[in-house]
Amino acid sequence: MPRSIVTTDTPTSANPDEVTHTLSIFVNNKAGVLMRICQVFARRGYNIESLVVSQGRDAHFSRMTIGLKGAPEGLEQIVKQVTKLIDVMHCYEHTTADAVVKEMLLIKFLVGNAQQRTDALQIIEHFNGKTVDLTPSSMTAMITGDSPKVDAAVGMLSQFDIIETVRTGKVVMARGEHPT
Amino acid sequence: MKSNQMDGAQALLRTLDDLGVEYIFGYSGGAALPMFDALETVETNMKFVLVRHEQGAVHMADGYARATGKPAAVLVTSGPGAGNTVTGLMTAQMDSVPMIVLTGQQVLWMLGKDAFQEADIFSITMPVVKHNYLVKDTNDLPRIAREAHHIATTGRPGPVLIDIPKNVSQDPFDGDLDPPVNLPGYEPEKSTEIDDTAIDEAAGLISQSQRPVILAGQGCMIARAGEELFKLSRTLGCPVTTTLLGKGVFPETDDYSLGMLGMHGTAYANKAIVEADLILNIGSRFDDRIIGQADKFGANAKIIHMDIDPSEMNKMIRPDVQVIGDAKASLIKLNKKVERLDTEDWLKHLNSYKKKFPLQYRKQGGLRMQQVIDELYHLTKGEAIISTDVGQHQMWAAQFYKNDAPYKWLSSGGAGTMGFGFPAAIGAQFACPDDLVVAIVGDGGFQMTLFELATAALHKLPLKILVLNNHYLGMVRQWQELFFEDRKSGVDLEGNPDFVKLAAAYGIQGFNIKRPADTARILQKALDYNEGPCLIHAECCKTDNVFPMIPAGAALEDMLTEPPKAKMAKPVGST
């Protein structure tokens, strides 16, 4: 087996070997921490697909969940280099097998008549979502779940004129009693 | 310890003094005024050295640290002052050198408003430091200084920058001068806990080896593991090659030494790596200058990688065994688990390479840089602290100035920073006032930071500046000759000054070497000169090339030991 770790492929190229990774990073709640972490990705040409940052239960710390695509061998380095940052407590990669991975979607679309409204409500109900804003001409729905479910909801609602969508990006929590 | 009489700057300086910081290299400016004032109002054991450019200050702190293992401080102002530290920070970060850089900054409420001499140095330097701070509260200064010192000097060392807005340093201090550090994500003390299983696995691989090679790097130097390294080599009967930065951690005149490996390393070190059945890397990061074509490196060998930094594992090379932790702690454990190997044939074989491919140079065709370095080596008995710049002279110095002791070879490896050699030598001379310090520099790199002649002269530092002048950026010219059909582009340093006259303008004694036959005599005169710094200018032949050479990205077995007879393709790997 070759020992070389050096690849000439750019990590962002459309490579079938690229898989989606979800990283959970526990960090000091300080200015600049997000930038330090983003630099590790940017330097290697990785594009962050989703990013959620929020204060931890202990306000001295923050939790970041980062979704990205890339070759697994490059990711090993990224995880280690992120872990090495002084402000990082830990950085773990999670899969759907060992963690609950969820995101939330807000979607706004045009509904011009009663029939459209009824159709839309049926779809939203199917995905366990709810309407959060309703006007005579538009509807905004909120749907939460794992990413394929959210994708499917967007697909079904595409029969309407979608004005915009906002997704929070993924948040993860380890399954069982283990901390994330 | 509490005090209500101090301002932030005074508290900061007292903390640095308390931490044992001995030197502050710096350059003043508006945003740093409170800190410069504190230099006058606080009594400390620290000495301040006014440089002539901020880059010089950072390289001086770097040279000081490489010679002692201890961090010095750098104190500069905001904006351009802070910006001028970036190259030096990158140099230190690449080579794991500890230092604390303090930058003045605009007042807090002006940040982000394009205020005069405002630069977002916190963001600018993030990728080139181990860690950095923007201080917002005066009372945080002692804790941050203590954290910076702790981070810079423990684990894998590196530079730490503290950006200090002027109001923060000027405001009254009403805090604790000795607060505990608060670094929950940083646990360098774990680096001395070495995994026994990994050591057993390493010892197992070693016991099966007949052709082992130890590759020792900067990590051995930082961990002060020279003694344990020597013991391991002797116990096993194992030859040792070092990286550029590892020079001196194993005595280069020892029979078991193969000298430096890599792009311009010895033929026998590179051949040993190619033919080895076991490569034991202790504290080197498998830099692209030493592995060449990565997928061919150590293709037939088992590889053990010992490193304090887990992110170096599997970065360039996938080892068979990883030992994560401090090199000294790892070697102490490993030494207890290994015994003598039957390496007699292997050593004989390598000795035949030493005879067949010795480091050598032609004595004809003008004055060779190699000869000047070789003579310097013999006249100083190899005992000088050598600080080099970057380029051909650096590689020749690495080849011909053999180091038998650690912390006496200062050279910018990872960053390859031209302009490093001379100010780093100044820093080393401050650190080691009784040692002989020689800056070996080329005409190109020296001109990047020669303004520090004033600093050297002012402090009457007894250092020797050896300018090896070939009127070219020689290493680039060498590549153009070999790979670009000798089209010289941007390498002719036409317009070089008369370096001896230049030194005289600073009140520095100069010596000229023009003929090979005069070299030893003039060098000796310069070494005997005792009235402060002196500059030795050697007019060297213009178009010499460094060999052996492994073109970038080529495999170690494709090493050239002499000028190629046929035209060569452009190298594909690295730079």
Give an overview of the whole structure:
The complex is a heterodimer of chains A (180) and B (575). Chain A is α+β, with helices and mostly antiparallel strands and 180 residues long. Chain A folds into two domains: 19-94, ACT domain (Alpha-Beta Plaits); 100-173, ACT-like. Chain A, domain 2 (Alpha-Beta Plaits). In chain A, 27% of the residues lie in helices and 39% in strands. Chain A has four helices and nine strands; from the N terminus they run E-H-E-E-H-E-E-H-E-E-H-E-E. In chain A, strands 5, 6, 7, 8 and 9 form a five-stranded antiparallel beta sheet that branches. In chain A, strand 6 (130-134) and strand 7 form a beta hairpin. Chain A starts with 18 loop residues before the first strand and ends in a 6-residue tail after the last strand. The model of chain A is unreliable at 7-13 (pLDDT under 50). By secondary structure, chain B is of the alpha/beta class. Chain B folds into three domains: 8-186, Thiamin diphosphate (ThDP)-binding fold, Pyr/PP domains (Rossmann fold); 190-356, 3-Layer(aba) Sandwich (Rossmann fold), CATH 3.40.50; 369-547, Rossmann fold (3-Layer(aba) Sandwich). Chain B contains 23 helices and 18 strands. In chain B, helix 7 links the parallel strand 5 and strand 6 (159-165). The longest helix of chain B has 15 residues, at 54-68. The relative contact order of chain B is 0.11. Chain A binds chain B through residues 1-6, 27-28, 31-32, 35-36, 39, 43, 73, 76-77, 80-81, 83-90, and chain B through 122-123, 126-127, 130-131, 134, 151, 183-186, 294-295, 297-299, 303, 309-311, 313-318.
